[in-house]
Amino acid sequence: MPGLSGEGHAADEGLEGRFRSGRAVLTVVLAPFVAAGAAPLLVRLLGHRASFVLALVPAASFLWLVARTDEATPGILESTPWVPGLDVALDFSLDGLSLIFSLLISGIGTLIVVYAGGYLKGHPMLGRFFLFLMMFMGAMQGVVLADNVVSLFVFWELTSLASYLLVGFESSKPAARRAALQALLITGTGGLALLAGLLMLANAGGSWRISDLTGAGSWIQDDPLYLPILILVVLGCFTKSAQWPFHSWLPGAMQAPTPVSAYLHSATMVKAGVYLLARLDPALGGSPEWLWILTGIGGLTMLMGVVFALLETDLKLVLAWTTVSALGTLVFLLGPTHEPGAKAAMAFLLVHALYKGALFMAAGNVDHEAGTRDLTKLGGLMRVMPVTFATAALACVSMAGLPLGLGWVAKELIGAAKIALEDEFGITVIAATLTNLMLFCVAAIVAIVPFTGKPTEPAEHAHEAPWSMLAGPVVLSSLGLVFGMAPNLVADSLIAAATTAVMGRKATLDIVLFKAVDWKFLLTLATFAAGAVLFAFWRRSAARWRAALNPTLDRGPDRGYDHAMAGLAALATWQTRIWQPGLLHRYMAASFAVVTLAVAASLARGDVRFNLSFDGGRLIEWAVFAVTAAAGLVAAFATTRLLAVTALGMLGLGVAMIFMLFGAPDLAITQFMVETLVVVILALVLIRLPGFRLSSRSDRPRWLYGSISVGTGAIVTLLLLGVLAEPFDPRLSEWFGATAVPDAFGHNIVNVILVDFRALDTLGEIIVVFAAALSALAAIGIGARARR
Amino acid sequence: MNSLILRAATRVLAPMMLMLSLFLLWRGHNLPGGGFIGGLVATSAIALQGIAFGPEVARRTLVLPPAVLAGVGLVVAVIATLPAGLVELPFFTGLWLKLDLGDGAILPLSTPLLFDIGVFLVVIGGVCAILLALEEDPETDQAGEP
Fold first, then answer.
1. Is the Cβ of A781 closer than 8 Å to some Cβ of chain B?
2. pLDDT at A700
3. pLDDT band for position A690 (cuts 50, 70, 90)
4. A246, A248, A230, A43: which is closest to A134 by C-alpha?
5. Is B142 part of any domain?
6. Which among A265, A285, A305 is the end of a domain?
């Protein structure tokens, strides 16, 4: 890659030779972040036309990636030193699997950015929208290109965060906020599981590089931690990719603006889980556990999604449920870890992204122009929105798996994968065939119901969408057609290369568009016919199905989520009441008791000597001690607050005098001033308190607090005696004494330490002073408001 | 508080304490003192004023609102760490400028001194913010307060 890896090759030597020191893949990841930062300014300058400038970023990435397709096997590995001291590097890899995802992210991303410019034209928050969207794009590129476990995780979480911001973009709508939070909590919880799983995996494999972990074969399966690792990683992937029972956030996420639904919740982010499963397949896959979990849950999700799609009336929700189903299919196909499955998964991945992206944008056009997405209200849009209709119909050809669409090719490959699995998993073949049948029906619903028939009321004032909103669906659905008729355009370069990366060995792909009229072909025809019949039934009685089933379905995982959230809030309230009673004396008592017990425990365990030598002391020392101790006793037995405060001030002054006696004037002056100001502040607080007397004995367990105080005092005394028994290490004070004048030009060592040697600490401390003052101001303000 | 003695004493004491605080700040690098102690002495002067003449007078002495003063101090302290970066030394490295005033008198100016001034301002601003907020009479209406 001359010209792009301008860093020379000297640095390569230390990186095992296979790493290049280029920055090209890094640029693909970082460029969207830069664009994200510039987006608000661009929108302010150019309005919605900023989308054309922003679209150049993913478009350039896309073209660069297309030019790199030949290099995808064996792949490009890049490493950029980041924190060399900690051996942290930005490792990126581009192989077949990364390539197909990265192409989808940048390619569909380009179209989505243009589309969003039209869809959200005039929206007051357009700049913020593009900021989030481009940030997501960069994060997603990071996920699929990262070759480091930690950076993969960081990007993974960034996609969840971007999704949260985008789902909740219409933040004035409570439903959008709820959906955003639900998506964040479910994917975030899965993210935590994934973090644990990835750390265990990296620990077991002894490397942070994903290419090291997956390149060594399935060694991990002999590790005793294999099952925990598998379960944790799968949890992360399943929550992200909306597998049952974590799927409920995905339909909810349809609250997001349609470009977001098309991009994040259909074509890219939800496939991150599928990506990671495929990525780790060489290391984790092939075991019976992997097979059962993926095939079982994937199959269930696949079937469930499409059934729910049939029961929806909202066009976007219909598409969302078929997305759930498609994600289930992908997981299902990755289960067996054999070549036909991987090939089918990669082909289906491409097909689904193309048709679903197009369909979501078409649905967005319908919503935008006709004002509703309700299937029961839509009809006859074909005449007013011919281009949208054509793209939707074309995409549905692919979705239904009809010949000429790329879906047909994928369907053939899925068929081959199913047959390879049939011996053990007869039932999954039935499930998959049922899914196909219903998917055909859903495709018919989406393509036919809104567009044909008598124009309904919304259709009368609708008109065709602007070209920026047509470009995306037209390009995507046409690509589905082109690739469907000439599958060899993508067969080797994308699908076979991705399969090679997943399987860890060279895969080839022979696509024959039409084999022969055999039983498989006849089964396909039968599926189509049954789908058509189902569609006919659906038209007649869908309303009745919904009425019968919706009450039951309402009690699904979505309701479970609500219960879990209510339970979490109750738990939080309960434990807060215990730990945070809001009573200062209880906090203090708990803190001192814990410290005392901890120190006592370590004193009792360790071999501690105490220095009990005593030189009699000077008279002035005795005097100061007597005054201080007396002040302490007065404070303990005081009956009014004012007396207690004054006695405490006296005690503090006694301590200051002790500092003075032992040669620490800076400390003594500080203590003096602090004590003075504390008494002033406390006196001011006292004026505001309702009663002047300390509260009565009954509501404070005085004996308990008394013993805690005495215990703390005793333990600290013992600790100090123990410290004195150790030989004094003068190195530090000698060093300060020796260097303060020559290095820092100061004779006052305390001040030299404060403002020069340890100035960073001091900076931290004054930040704390500042923050404490602001918090106190806020607290006083709240009190003042509450009184009014 | 309406005490003639306190008021008369404060008129003399507060300016002296403020000057003392500046003196402590200045000499801190070589003798007991420094930004922290100086700041506390100055705060005591402000507190005294607040008690004797009321918080409004104390606020006028500070010129800036106390929280703003603390923020300015923080900025000053951070600025003091930066010049080292310009001459490619690690941040926080102390830089010294010894002005020759003639007659053998040397005025040493340094980034540690600037840093100490920042500390001084943060302490005054931070503690006075709390003190003066508490000194506002809780019984009277505080329409001006946020």
1. yes
2. 60
3. low
4. A43
5. no
6. A285
Q: Which residues 57-116 of chain B have a CB within 8 Å of chain A?
A: 66-67, 70-71, 73-74, 77-78, 81, 92, 94, 96, 108, 110, 112-113, 115-116
Locate the chain A residue with the closest alpha carbon to B137.
Answer: A688
What is the structure's pLDDT at B12? 92
Determine whether the interchain pair B94/A744 forms a contact, defined as Cβ–Cβ distance below 8 Å. yes
Please name which of A115, A111, A124 lies closest in space to residue A43, comparing C-alpha atoms. Answer: A124
Inter-chain touch B29–A677, beta carbons under 8 Å: no
Contact criterion met (CB below 8 Å) for A375 and A129: no
- Which distant-in-sequence residues (6+ apart) come within 8 Å of A167 by Cβ? A176, A179, A180, A183, A252, A253, A255, A256, A260
Label residue A547 by pLDDT band (50, 70, 90).
confident
Task: Look at the block and give the residue holding tokens 């792949």.
Answer: A75
What's the CA gap between B18 and B37, in Å, rounded? 12
Contact of A152 with A143, CB cutoff 8 Å: yes
**Cα dihedral sign for A200, A206, A210, A215?**
negative
Nearest chain B residue to A763 by CA distance is B77
In Å, how far is A692's CA from the nearest CA of chain B? 16
Task: Looking at the structure, tell me whether residues A110 and A151 fall in a common domain.
Answer: yes
Render pLDDT for B27-52 as a digit per residue (tens, 0 to 9).
888 888 888 999 999 999 999 998 88
Distance of alpha carbon B109 from alpha carbon B95, whole angstroms: 9
Contact predicate A120/A43, CB 8 Å: no
pLDDT value of position A89 = 77
A375 or A113: whose pLDDT is higher? A113
Determine the Cα–Cα distance for residues A478 and A395; give it in Å rounded to an integer. Answer: 8
A659 in the same domain as A640 = yes
Least confident stretch, A18-27, A394-403, A599-608? A18-27
Q: Is the pLDDT of residue B129 over 60?
A: yes
Same domain, yes or no: A626 and A753 = no
Asked whether the CA dihedral A669, A671, A676, A680 is positive or negative, the reply is positive
Number of domains in chain A: 3
* Cα separations in angstroms, A150 against A142, A219, A238, A274: 11, 21, 19, 18
Query: A689 and chain B: CB distance < 8 Å anywhere?
Result: no
What is the tally of structural domains in chain B? 1
Q: Which of A16, A97, A76, A20 has its CA nearest to residue A504?
A: A97
What's the whole-model pTM score?
0.72
Q: Does B144 touch chain A (CB under 8 A)?
A: no
Given a cut of 80, is residue A670 above it in pLDDT? yes
Residues of B in contact with A759 (CB under 8 A): 81, 92, 112, 115
Per-window interface: B 22-51 vs A, CB < 8 A: 28-37, 40-41, 43-44, 47, 51
Report how far Cα A766 is from the mean position of its chain's Cα atoms: 34
pLDDT for position A354: 93
Provide the chain A residues 71-130 that lie in CB contact (below 8 A) with chain B: none
A174-218, pLDDT tens digit by residue? 999 999 999 999 999 999 999 999 999 988 888 888 888 887 767
Range of the domain at B77: 4-135
Residue B144's pLDDT band (cuts 50, 70, 90): very low
Classify residue B20: in a domain, yes or no: yes
Q: Are strands B106-110 and B96-100 parallel, antiparallel or unpaired?
A: antiparallel
Q: How far apart are CA A289 and CA A294, in angstroms?
A: 8
Residue A15 has pLDDT above 50, yes or no: no
A407 phi and psi angles, rounded to 5 deg: -55, -35
Closest CA in chain A for residue B108: A745
- Helices A467-485, A96-119: axis angle to 10 degrees equals 150
Looking at residue A350, what is its pLDDT?
Answer: 92
A405 in helix, strand or coil?
A: coil
